[in-house]
Amino acid sequence: MAMADADSLTTDFVSDRLVLRLVAPPADLAPFVAGLYRMIVPPGASVEDWLPPEEANLRTGTATEYSAAIGDGEMADVPAAIISGPTDRVTHLRISEGSFWGMGLTPTGWAQLVDMPVDSCVNRFQDVRTAGIPDALCDMLDHLRDIGDDIVRAASLVNATLRRMLAQRPPADERILAIHRALLTDHESSVAAIAERHDMNARTFIRFSQKRFGFPPRILLRRQRFLRSLGKFMLDPSLSWINALDTAYWDQAHFIRDFRATMGMTPSDYARREHPIVAAAVAVTHRRSGITMQGLYDPARPIQSETGL
Predict the structure, then answer these.
(1) What structural domains does the chain harbor?
(2) Pairing verdict, β 81-84 and 56-70
(3) I need a labelling partner for 206 at 20 to 30 A (CA). Which of 35, 86, 191, 277 fits?
(4) SS3 category, 70
(5) CA-CA distance, 140 to 186, in Å (whole number)?
(6) Among 101-110, 213-222, 231-240, which stretch is predicted with the lowest mean pLDDT?
(7) Whole-angstrom Cα distance, residue 106 to residue 297?
(8) What's the sign of the alpha-carbon dihedral 23, 166, 106, 214?
């Protein structure tokens, strides 16, 4: 892959406290990963943020300080290479002087690439070397830390590793991708309707959702309506919350209850805080693919290229 190809696929956000580069997935890997990103907190800088729910992630990097807590957990030092399961609540981060590579895994990507039940990993992060994930992913993350800022080498490494792993796996369960896309739509709010469309009764669908997505479908639908609302607000913070509400909310009180349960604070409290990481992620993700949050990524409709990440 030529450097020009990498540049054409990369969307950047640059400030005095944070640099974020997002690289779109190639067409063949789009069902499995939401893209590759490079985050840099420059020397002398630090950031703190409260991240909304997202799908699973692989991350690797080092920093003077890198600590995190999911939900109401205690802040803890983050290992150099981690796997983070899907979340339905806030992740509190503090980072000083560091640089990281990371990628979002779709539910299909988790099923094909990670040898762990996803429902055992929700709302937690683990050191990849003790988590029991395939050595190929652990080695890839170790090599990424040595690459520095070379986006071409990083993309080539990720492409090659994931393609090699996928070639050794049986075909993906097409129901995971189909249900993933159904959960993303803003008009889908009925668990029974999704289950019926995929020839499952309600009980079977709940078990399938727990196994493949980590949560029962009602929680996934709640997460998606929340992310659509928060994403709209983050694109235009001048909006009142009432004007950012997703159509699946009954009223503002319904949204506030969801916000407290998800983020551990009120919408007003959240709006008063700085959000350097979330704002950067929303900016580059929206410019690249027209969505605002990793949790809203549609694996069948990304901005793609056949040349690679």
Answers:
(1) 3-171 (2.60.120.10), 174-276 (1.10.10.60)
(2) antiparallel
(3) 35
(4) strand
(5) 36
(6) 231-240
(7) 8
(8) negative
Closest to 285 (Cα-Cα) out of 52, 44, 97: 52
The phi, psi pair for 82, rounded to 5°, reads -130, 160
pLDDT digits (tens, 9 = 90+) for 10-27: 789 999 999 999 998 999
Count H helices, E strands: the chain?
A: 13, 8
Q: Running DSSP on this structure, what letter comes out for residue 179?
A: H
Instruction: For residue 193, report the phi and psi dihedrals to the nearest 5 degrees.
Output: -65, -40
CB burial of residue 17 (10 Å; 0-12, 13-18, 19+): middle
**Amino acid of residue 220:** L
The pLDDT of 228-256, averaged and rounded, is: 90
**Contact assessment for residue 52 and residue 85, using Cβ atoms and an 8 Å cutoff:** no
H/E segment holding residue 39: strand 33-51
* Rama region for 132: left / alpha / beta (φ>0; ψ in -120 to 50; rest): left
The first and second tokens of residue 183, run together, are: 């959960």
Token pair for 243: 């004007």
CA separation for the pair 110, 52 (Å, rounded): 20
